Structures are given as C-alpha cells and as structure tokens.
Amino acid sequence: MEKQTTIVIDLDVFKALHAHINYINEPLNDVLRRLLGLNSKSTEKSETTPTNTKMFTGIKGVLFPIGMKLTGKYLGNTYEAVIVRSGLQIGTRHFGSPSGAANSFCNGATDGWKFWHFTDRDGREKPIKILQTKKEYLKQF
After folding, report:
1. What is the spatial distance between Cα 8 and Cα 134, in angstroms, rounded to a whole number?
2. Is the pTM of this model over 0.85?
3. Using H for helix, E for strand and C for coil, what is the string for the chain?
4. Distance, CA of 72 to CA of 117 (rounded, Å)
C-alpha cells in the first residue's frame, strides 16, 4: 500500500470535488488525481471501492446527500421529495430548486427553504434552510 496522508479542506472545496465525480463511489483521491493530471490509480469502479461513500449534489450553493428524503406540509397534506443529482424529484417530476418544487403544491410563490424539512441524524425534523449556514450544515450529517 502506498503511503497516504490526510489533508484538511473547507466545505467549498469538498463541494467542488463532488461536482467532478464521474461515477458512483469514485474515490475523491481519483478525482484529485484526474484534476491534477496525474495517472489515476483506478480507471473504473473496483471491487475495493467503498460502498458507504455518500454522494452529494449542490442545490443553490447547499450540498445535499443524494437520496435524502424531504417532506413538506400544505393545507393538511404531506408531500415528499427526494434529492437526486439534478435537484429534487417528486414522482417523475424534477425541480432544480426547493422553491420550484414547493410551488408545484402551493398556491402562489413559496419559500422552499422553509417548506421542505429533513430528518437530522438525531431523528429531529428541521427545515432545509438551516443547511444554508455552514456551521449548522456540518452538525447535520
């Protein structure tokens, strides 16, 4: 095994690296090697690629785990959405922003950042708006 070292990166760099992932579970080391013009250690997904690596997508500057489930309530009804690479998916419909998805249920303009909620790692329901704050974001996942 080749010698490895740990580096500290900020959230913006982390988001940028994830934006350059070519396939599910591509190691970030391979992403960096490709971006830096170094030979990749693996050109395709190998059997040793970890399967627990979370994939993320950026929506309006906030990083969301792909597959994250969101809920929203309006007039006594509960609506569900899931985070996909292109944004939010509700059934077969795709939306590029939380507000666009919320507007599909509500009459008039709706702030999707307040409408949609997620369940944090402690099982508490919270509005996705708190994910816009870097400090709060890091506490959630």
Report:
1. 16
2. no
3. CCCCCCCCCCHHHHHHHHHCCCCCCCCHHHHHHHHCCCCCCCCCCCCCCCCCCCCEEEECCEEEECCCEEEEEECCEEEEEEEECCEEEECCEEECCHHHHHHCCCCCCCCHHHHCEEECCCCCEEEHHHHHCHHHHHHHC
4. 6
* Alpha carbon distances (Å) from 59 to 22, 48, 87, 114, 124: 18, 30, 6, 15, 22
Q: How far is CA 50 from CA 9, 29, 83, 114, in A?
A: 21, 13, 21, 34
Query: Locate tokens 């395709």: which residue?
Result: 44
Beta bridge partners of 63: 58
> Does residue 45 have a pLDDT over 80?
no
Number of Cβ atoms within 10 Å of the Cβ of 26:
21
Q: Which residue has the tokens 């490709």?
A: 34
pLDDT at 9 over 70: yes
What average pLDDT is seen over the chain? Answer: 80
